[in-house]
Specification:
Number of helices: 5
Strand content: under 5%
Structural class: mainly alpha
Shape: elongated
Number of strands: 0
Largest sheet: none
Mean pLDDT: 80
Order of helices and strands: HHHHH
Oligomer: single chain
Low-confidence stretches: none
C-alpha cells in the first residue's frame, strides 16, 4: 500500500513571528524617530497580535516539516534580536563610557522597540514549548506499549 504524502499548507510554513521581528527592526531603522515614537504602540499592536494569533494556529499541526521549520525560524529570530540588542548595547556603551570623537554606526533601540521584540521572542518560546508537547504526543502514539 503506497503511503500518501500531503504537503503542508503554505500558511503553516510562513514564519509569521520572524516576519514581525524583521518588520519591527526595519521600521525602527528606516522611519523618522519622532514619527515612530508617536506611533510605536499602534505599530507594535498591528505586528505583535497578528503574529501571536497566526503562530498559535500552527500548534495543532504536528508534522515534522512544520516543526523543523518552526525551530529554524525561531533560531533565526533569536539571532536577529540578539544582534540588534548587541548593537544597541555596544552603541550605548560607546556613547556613555568611551566618548569616541567620531560617530560609530550602531542600532538605536528605544525601550518600546526592545519591549516589542521581547514580547515577540516570548511568543516564539511559547510556540516552541507547545511544539515539544506535540512531538511528545506524536511519539507516544507510535509507542507500542501505550
Amino acid at each position: 500500500m503506497p503511503t500518501q504524502t500531503h504537503k503542508p499548507s503554505a500558511f503553516l510554513t510562513i514564519p509569521w513571528g520572524l516576519m514581525s521581528i524583521v518588520l519591527v527592526l526595519l521600521l525602527n531603522l528606516t522611519l523618522n524617530g519622532e514619527w515612530f515614537q508617536k506611533n510605536w504602540s499602534w505599530i507594535a499592536l498591528v505586528l505583535i497580535i497578528p503574529a501571536a494569533i497566526l503562530e498559535n494556529f500552527k500548534v495543532g499541526y504536528s508534522t515534522m516539516r512544520i516543526m523543523f521549520m518552526k525551530v529554524v525560524y525561531s533560531l533565526i529570530s533569536f539571532l536577529l534580536v540578539g544582534m540588534a540588542f548587541g548593537s544597541a548595547l555596544s552603541g550605548w556603551h560607546i556613547a556613555k563610557f568611551q566618548k569616541v570623537a567620531e560617530p560609530v554606526k550602531t542600532i538605536n533601540l528605544p525601550w518600546y522597540v526592545m519591549l516589542a521584540l521581547g514580547v515577540l521572542l516570548m511568543i516564539q518560546v511559547a510556540q516552541l514549548f507547545s511544539m515539544l508537547k506535540a512531538v511528545k504526543r506524536e511519539f507516544m502514539q507510535m509507542d507500542p506499549d501505550q
